[in-house]
Each structure stands twice: as C-alpha cells, then as structure tokens.
C-alpha cells in the first residue's frame, strides 16, 4: 500500500464548524493553540443546527447551572460583538407563559428570584395591557425576563469564524472526516487529507454518533427535524421587534407536549417565527425525507388560540435539526477512554446562546485545564445504562 501523506501536527483539531466548534476553535486560537477546524460542507451551509437568522438568548432556566453559565455567556457575546465590530444581540425581553401552579413554572420563578434576574411578574389583569394581541391560556401565569432577546445566528457564526482565522486558525471546509485514529497524537482522515492533533474536539451536531463510532463510543442521542415556521401578521408590525414585541415561550401547552416558542417579526418583515420545541426523528443526511407535519398541526391550534393577529397557516417553513439527549442537558466531557478527545454534543435545541461559554469550556478540556464551570450535569457517565461503549 502506498504510504499516505500525513500533514503537519496541530495542537488541536476541531471537527464541525457549527456554533460550538467555531467558538471552541476561536478560544483555542486565542490561547495560542495551533488549531484546525474541519467542516464537511462548504461554508456557509444550512444542513446542520446553527444556520438561520435568529436564536433566543435568555437566562430564564429552571436549573442554576444554566443560569450561571448564561451570566458569563452574555458577557462573552458582548465581548464578541466588540471584537467583531458587529451587532449580534438585540434585547427584546422574553415572555414566559406556563401553568401557574405547575412545578416547572414555579421552579422557574424561584430560580429567577434566587439569581436576582431582572424579571417582571405579570398579573392576569394587567397581561393584555403589557402584551397586546396575545391570549393567555386559562390557568397560565406570565413573567418577562427583561434582558432576554435575539441573537443574530448566521451573523454570529460568520463573525466567530472570521475572528478564529484572524488569530491564525485554519478552516478547511468541504472536507468530511471519514476516520479518527485515537492515540497520544490523534490522526484524523478526511476525504482529501490526513491531519494529526495533540487533542481532538468533536462538535459534529447531528453527526456526533457517526463520528464517535470511530472511537468505539455511542451516546443516547436522538436527531429530530424541526419545521421552522414563520406566520404572516394580519396587520404588518403587530408582533414586530420595532413594536417591542418580546420573544416568548409557552411551557408545555398540554400534558405530554413540548414548549412552543416564538420570536418577534424581524428577519422576514411581516412574518413571525413560531416553532414547536420537538420534531420527528431523522437521519441527519436524510433530513428532507422526513415530512411529518404533526408539529405544524399543534402550532396551527396554538396560533389560532393564542396569537389572533397571525394568519394560522405557516407562510414559510424552513428546516433545522436538534440533537436531543434523554434529559435534554448537553454533553460536555472528555471521551471515557481517550482523555485527549473532547466531546460537545446533544445541545437539545437550546445550545446556541451558550456558544461562547461552551467554546471556552471545551477549549479548557482540550488544553488539559480544569474547566471554569462545574461540568457534572454534562458528563457522559450519567447515561451509564445508555452509553454503549464497544471498547
Ligand atoms: C430550529 C432551531 C431553533 C433553535 N432555537 C434556539 C434558540 O432559540 N436558542 C438557543 O440557544 N438555541 C437554539 N437552537 C439550538 C442551537 O441552534 C443548537 O444547539 C446549536 O446550533 C448546535 O450547534 P452545533 O455546533 O453543536 O451543531 P451544528 O451546527 O450542527 O454543527 C455541527 C457541524 O459539524 C459538521 N460535521 C458533522 N460531521 C462532520 C464530518 N464527518 N466532517 C466534518 N464536519 C462534520 C456539520 O456539517 C456541522 O456543520 C435551535 C436549533 C434549531 C434547529
Ligand atoms: O433555546 C431557546 O431559548 C429556544 C426557545 C425555547 C425552546 C428551545 N429554543
């Protein structure tokens, strides 16, 4: 067999130029690590989880660990804005509606108060005065996280990749990783080259398990297709950023259903984004063959009941994917067998806002440093009965 040319040695190779891989690569390059970022598609692309114009940013979480990470993530987003010289965040506030006496909503309220997050608790009588054109369901309470808002996702991804390159980082897009050989130096083979790294970060979004197979590990991840729906305003501007309409989440509208969330009309004038926080299972390479519209039926009923100023038929439907863990918490950990392989996966449809802090934490793991946040909620070990290691 002909000897294969093996390229130069990197301190770290990052697989996957979504928001998590790009932020991780940037942190590594900032820390003077010679870093290679590999992406299977030509950039920019819309086949993974990080594309699209907008994402919600919020501190409104029930769990303390997410709130603590978001404190720092907001600071890091602001720093990125300064470094890149572009606006990435627009403050809109986030309206959360949920069963007033339900466990989830009560826990959320308590966490907001415990962390002194600027929050307005809305009484039923004053709801429509603050939030016109929205019908609050019977039995639901409402609060507003006043510092929440919108992140400009595509713009952010481009900015981070540009900053990474300006620190000397190398991006090779249109190069699909087809093999990983663990070792003190990890060897990564793509369809057009071979690279070596002292450490490897796998941030492959929906393709995480495809890549982890080369390392003998499989995680309990479910990939689902999300129908990203935009709805036409009957009167343009009714639910717009310009009118200070907030983002919103309605928590589990019915027993056994998932949250519904929306962002004010902005990127497509006259259209408001309202989506269901779950979808139907798909193979990542076969996303467009998944044509289930059960989520859209749920949304039609929700829009009809709750948002009377929208035409209750989606005007635009785009596609995106979630990679969901059983507990909907992320995976941020070292490989159980190979300490120099770091895994960031299972962002379960809520990882974008954490991009910069996740980049920092994964880069710390890759550099062999102690991570600056407690990563115990994100350990692979929690899946013990699920994680199938063939090693
Ligand atoms: C519709 C929708 C709405 C969302 N809303 C929010 C929100 O409001 N707020 C929020 O915080 N989060 C939100 N999220 C979640 C957030 O967008 C994701 O958690 C985040 O984008 C995940 O990023 P990632 O880098 O892990 O994955 P991806 O963006 O999928 O990146 C992985 C990359 O790895 C590449 N790759 C895979 N395999 C290979 C290979 N073999 N070789 C080379 N490259 C490879 C892929 O091509 C891809 O580019 C939403 C997600 C969706 C889909
Ligand atoms: O991460 C978020 O904030 C959004 C809204 C809620 C559902 C998940 N995605």
Automatic annotation (TrEMBL):
Keywords: FAD, Flavoprotein, Oxidoreductase
Family annotation (Pfam families): DAO
Transmembrane portions of the chain: none
Keyword hit for Lyase: no
Gene Ontology MF annotations: flavin adenine dinucleotide binding; L-pipecolate oxidase activity; sarcosine oxidase activity
Cofactors, names only: FAD
Domain of life: Eukaryota
GO process terms (BP): L-lysine catabolic process to acetyl-CoA via L-pipecolate
GO CC terms in record: peroxisome
InterPro entries for the chain: FAD-dep_OxRdtase (IPR006076), FAD/NAD-bd_sf (IPR036188), MTOX (IPR045170)
Stretches assigned to the FAD dependent oxidoreductase domain: 11-365
Record-stated family: Belongs to the MSOX/MTOX family.
Protein name: FAD dependent oxidoreductase domain-containing protein
Organism of origin: Sinocyclocheilus rhinocerous
Upper classification of the organism: Eukaryota, Metazoa, Chordata, Craniata, Vertebrata
């Amino acid at each position: 067999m002909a000897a294969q040319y093996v390229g130069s040695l990197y301190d770290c190779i990052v697989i996957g130029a979504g928001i998590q891989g790009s932020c991780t690569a940037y942190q590594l390059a900032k820390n003077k690590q010679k870093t290679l970022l590999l992406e299977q598609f030509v950039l920019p692309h819309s086949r993974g989880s990080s594309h699209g114009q907008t994402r919600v940013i919020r501190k409104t979480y029930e769990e303390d660990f997410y709130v603590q990470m978001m404190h720092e993530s907001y600071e890091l987003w602001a720093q990125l804005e300064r470094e890149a010289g572009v606006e990435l965040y627009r403050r809109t506030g986030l309206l959360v509606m949920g069963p007033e006496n339900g466990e989830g909503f009560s826990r959320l309220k308590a966490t907001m108060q415990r962390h002194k997050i600027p929050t307005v608790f809305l009484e039923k009588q004053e709801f429509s005065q603050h939030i016109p054109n929205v019908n609050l369901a019977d039995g639901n309470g409402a609060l507003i996280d006043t510092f929440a808002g919108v992140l400009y996702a595509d713009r952010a991804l481009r900015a981070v990749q540009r900053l990474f390159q300006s620190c000397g980082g190398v991006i090779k897009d249109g190069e699909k990783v087809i093999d990983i050989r663990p070792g003190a130096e990890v060897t990564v083979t793509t369809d057009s080259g071979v690279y070596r790294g002292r450490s490897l970060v796998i941030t492959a979004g929906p393709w995480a398990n495809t890549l982890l197979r080369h390392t003998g590990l499989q995680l309990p991840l479910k990939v689902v297709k999300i129908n990203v729906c935009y709805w036409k305003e009957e009167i343009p501007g009714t639910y717009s950023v310009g009118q200070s309409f907030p983002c919103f989440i309605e928590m589990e509208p019915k027993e056994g259903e998932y949250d519904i969330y929306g962002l004010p009309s902005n990127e497509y004038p006259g259209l408001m984004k309202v989506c269901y926080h779950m979808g139907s299972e798909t193979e990542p390479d076969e996303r467009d063959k998944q044509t289930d519209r059960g989520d859209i039926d749920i949304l039609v009923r929700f829009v009809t009941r709750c948002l009377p100023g929208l035409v209750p038929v989606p005007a635009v439907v785009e596609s995106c994917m979630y990679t969901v863990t059983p507990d909907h918490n992320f995976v941020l950990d070292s490989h159980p067998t190979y300490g120099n392989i770091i895994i960031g996966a299972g962002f379960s449809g809520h990882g974008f806002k954490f991009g910069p802090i996740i980049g920092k934490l994964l880069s710390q793991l890759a550099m062999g440093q102690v991570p600056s946040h407690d990563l115990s909620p994100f350990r692979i070990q929690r899946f013990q009965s699920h994680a199938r290691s063939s090693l």
